[in-house]
Amino acid sequence: MPVTRGTGWWKSRYLLHWREGSFLTCWLSLCAAETLLTCPSSCTCNSSSLEVDCSGLGLTIIPSDIPLDTQTLLLLNNKLTTLTGSVFANLSALHYLDLSHNFLDLLPQDVFRDLANLTDLHLRNNSIRALEKSLLQRTVLLRRLDLSINGLSQLPAGVFDDLTALHLLSLRSNRLQNLDRETFEPLVRLQKLQLGDNPWECDCNLRDFKHWMEWFSYRGGKIDGLECTLPKELRGKDMRMVPMEMFNYCSQVEDENGSSSVDQTGTPCAKDRPPLLSEPKAEPEPESSTECSQKQRYRPVSVRRAIGTVIIAGVVCGIVCIMMVVAAAYGCIYASLMAKYHRELKRRQPLMGDTEGEHEEQKQISSVA
């Protein structure tokens, strides 16, 4: 006979399943809460904004027990000198990272590799002297990047190629002397660029970047002043105010330097030249540095010719303006004289009409008589 199960058995079965489900739910909730509330010692954590503040604690290493769901991490005003490549490996949810006011020198090329959601990166006031080309390759959502007050003397080609969403870039107070236009062309959404307080050399090496600056300003971008330190003729002047005509001599200088550096005896690249018939065969020289394959930097000594051209153009424009003012004044005087003449003419016309009427009346009286 089949065994019949009563209502009590089904209730007990249902209560058992309900208890098991409740226990599992509570356990998962406790685990999640434990993960959320875990906070590094001495740091301040905000569970609502998912912010971890470890500022001003004198840290020499970054804590390893930072919650995995942290979105804002503040590590400014510490004593950090180096970062390992995996220090941010588990913080893929991070949006805002501030490492300002530390002693960071060299950043590993893969230190930001796992921060794909990062939008704000602040590295202000450190000792960074160089950047790796692939340092920011994975931070494609980055909108604000602050590299001010460091020791950067140059930027590697392609370091900003993947930052198409960048809106603000600060390179103030570094050791930059010139920049390449190609470095900034990928920044299609850039709105503000800060480049002040750098020892800019306003020579031919900065000519192409000057072209990019004018295009950037034309499309509405904001850029602060670039005060020239060299050459001495432009010292203290703002690069934005220097006219492009000042760089017209660069092509001529490059042609002259290029022609003078070809086939010169005694230069490092002269070993590639075939020997003349009158020259004895010399022993092959060891390979020199890569300077032979690279074009030398051209540093013009003076820009007096360009300054003279600007002065002459200004004088000519001034003479033309004076002539236009004289012509305008002559036109005004002529117009006033003509107006006065027409007013006098209109005033005399009624008098002339009355005289003619009197003559006609006299003629009629004489004819009647």
TrEMBL record:
GO biological process: axonogenesis; positive regulation of synapse assembly; potassium ion transmembrane transport
Listed Basic and acidic residues bias regions: 270-284
Disordered as annotated region, ranges: 257-295
Pfam families reported in the protein's UniProt record: LRR_8 (PF13855), LRRNT (PF01462)
InterPro entries the record matches: Cys-rich_flank_reg_C, Leu-rich_rpt, Leu-rich_rpt_typical-subtyp, LRR_dom_sf, LRRNT
Annotated signal peptide: 1-33
Keywords on record: Cell membrane, Disulfide bond, Ion channel, Ion transport, Leucine-rich repeat, Membrane, Repeat, Signal, Transmembrane, Transmembrane helix, Transport
SMART domains (alphabetical): LRR_TYP, LRRCT, LRRNT
Family listed: Belongs to the SLITRK family.
Protein name according to UniProt: Leucine-rich repeat and transmembrane domain-containing protein 2
Source organism (scientific name): Geotrypetes seraphini
Origin organism lineage: Eukaryota, Metazoa, Chordata, Craniata, Vertebrata
